[in-house]
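Bench notes, bay 3.
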Amino acid sequence: MNKDNKIPNWSMDSALRYIYINEVIFVVLVLLCFIGELLAEATDRIAFFYWLCVTPLFFYCSLLSEKAKAISTGISNKHLIRYELFYWGSAFGCVLLVFLMWHAETITPGGGAMTIHIILAHTMFLSGIVLGVHYYLIGGILFVTAALSIVMGGNFGVDLVLSLPFIWLGFYLEETLLFPTLKRKNDYLKEREESDWQEGDRRS
């Protein structure tokens, strides 16, 4: 058998080079949000442990988005990663405190689940400054579903309907300028062109 026809082994780096990787990550995050809403309607205790365990997955998705951004632009910015670590470091600290409050029986499982839900909403929205509009929208979905759960006691159908505009924006308005974003792709390319131009002047 010709070795040239062999299918290359799967790797995370090759997956991150996929043209629609940002949309794939966005869909995964949306699904994680809705799974949490479904579990919250079933039982508060399961919802609490779900949001507790899913927090690292949200963080991992944000790291994948940052790496995909670095691959697509060809430039890795350590300052942006540092900002992201600050956001998530504070989020993990808050989640740990919520867990300790639940363990000390000063907060109910339902209250703990909702608190972690809101912490994730806040962190994802702030991550949008670094990672782009998808994370603003995920934060928006989490804020909306949290508000509905508090005001109406939670209704998956209503959550889904009100989240549809956010999902639509995530697919069709990725390059929107509605929200501030640090170091977009155009910024990287512009910096690279200016750097090349300055280097050319020095050589001449």
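Next record in the batch:
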Amino acid sequence: MGVLQRLDSALDFEGIGIPTSVLASFLGWFSLYCVLCLTNSKRSYEWHCRVVTSVHAIIISTLSYIFGMYYNPWFITNPAGRNNNLEILTLVICMGYFLFDFCWCIWFQEEFFMIIHHFLTLVCITASLIMGISGTEVGAAIFGSEVSNPMLQARYFMRETGRTKTLVYEINDLAFIVTFFICRMGIGSFFLYSYLRHPTPLLIFRIGSVGLYIVSLIFMYSIARFAVRKYRNFFMRLVRAERKEGAKMTNGNAPKEVIGAQVTGVTEGQVTRVTEGRVTGVTEGRVTGVTEGQVKGVTKGQVKGVTEGRGNGHANNHEHTD
């Protein structure tokens, strides 16, 4: 805690100016994107943008948790407090990225709800920086939004590189779904409920939090549909595999040699060399080489080579040799 206090005291945004800091952050993220595009032209623009997004998500999740949730008073019981320099640093870095990504989404015509999400995030961060309040809860909302983002980007990278059939890909998919649901729908719902009930937060932050929650619901709906489709198909493949294995045992994979045992209910199969055993209920199958045993109830099949045994009830194209 002492280290964070010293770092908070060392930062001076009054001297630098918040607008200048935001511009520097934007140029930093944009420069990283340009460097990636120039040094690896074989990859698409979306690939490089997602690399920038991954770096931002890891950095901002760490900063928003440490500076916004760990270092500060509990954001649910003490909202609308004054921003400290660590919160301002987090918001400045985050705003620079969202300015870059918002422009990228507009330029490449990304989906409408992603643009709305970025716009609402920029409004909330801008309001917090201008008014100098609510940095704690804005940072907490950023943490909940960004903590699942690295897994989403990892999924894209693995799909692009042909690693969709790996165990890591499946674990990452499941981790993303669970993390998104817990952070946005679980903790996020409780946070929104507590925040709206509190008398202190300003109207603009209330509207922003509700808007971001609605966008999260839309994203969650898409993810839930994906999860249901993915795991339903997975379980259906398991069922089909079990049925196929069972069909192999029924059709053409009956026991070939049985000694001192009993074989019953063989359908469309073949049983050969039954020694001191009993074969009953063979339908459309073939039984050969029965020694000291009993064969009965063979329908549309063939029985031959019964020695010191008994054969009865054979119908339709059978042969019995003593």
